[in-house]
Amino acid sequence: MDLKQRQNFSSGAPLEDKVGYSRAVKVGDHVFIGGTTTTTAQGEVEAEGDAYLQTKIILQKIEQALKKAGARLSEVYRVRIYVTDIKRAQEYMQAYSEFFKEIKPVTILAEVSALARPAHLVEIEAEAIIGSYLVNKK
What we know:
Structural class: alpha+beta
Number of strands: 6
Distance between the termini: 38 Å
Shape: globular
């Protein structure tokens, strides 16, 4: 059996060690970014009430986590977006398109009844394969 090396990457959030989760996990050439919100290391929620800005901050955090794991945004093939108000989809997707318009990963935008904190409007997960590239843009 050929075992693949696994690496965990922390964002520095205090709950990661307390609860037992990682911002990102790399297994072989696959990178998995866990549910990401705008909560800071100090426990504050950034951009409260602003769906566009929360989405943008989260995607910046995801891009940083990918870099730590040796991946690039252009290698992302799947994004899952969980929101508390689907009526604000245009705001979430405006920020999303600033990062992924040309990359075009498979994506889901799903409304959920609540996230970890009432101030969270959006939470995002992403997956990437290091070394993958876009063959065509159709």
